[in-house]
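Records of this kind hold a single protein each, on a pair of labelled lines. With that in mind, the following record should read easily:
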Amino acid sequence: MTLPHRWVPLRESDAQQFRSALGCFATGVTIVTAKGLGPGEYIGITVNSFAAVSLDPPLVLFSLGKRNFSLKHFLSTRHFAVNVLSGGQHALALRFARSAADKWNGVEFELWEFDCPIFPGVAAAFECTIHHTYQGGDHVILVGHVEHMRCDTTAEPLLFLRGRYGTFADSP
């Protein structure tokens, strides 16, 4: 039996409706970091638009809105790191989701070869060289070649769904 379709046409003016529909897709939560322009300066932003692109070569991507303050900094560097947050890092995700000059104050991190901050306790971390950038509507897509990584397969990932953070529950 075929059920009647209940689709609606998407118009340019339906941005909020489109955003709500995208919110039905659960994503992991990351903080993307890089060395800033000045000495001892770092940039970081909470991102859920992270994905794997290729295993050979190892490529990942994330995207940033063209109006995002951090975009110019990410485009002026050659490297970035993706910190895949674990379930207990909700406060860290919120801290880096906001614009604030003091978001790094009191935050622990380590630096790898390319001086991109890596947070302790993350489920995974990837330090990348920028491989390509692409224009994608109102966003810029940054593709990185993974140069270094660390993974904790026992860490519970932090998830984002319908505007809320949570963790994964196994099905019975």
In short: The helical segments are 15-22, 71-75, 90-97. The chain has a mean pLDDT of 90. The chain has one domain: 29-158.
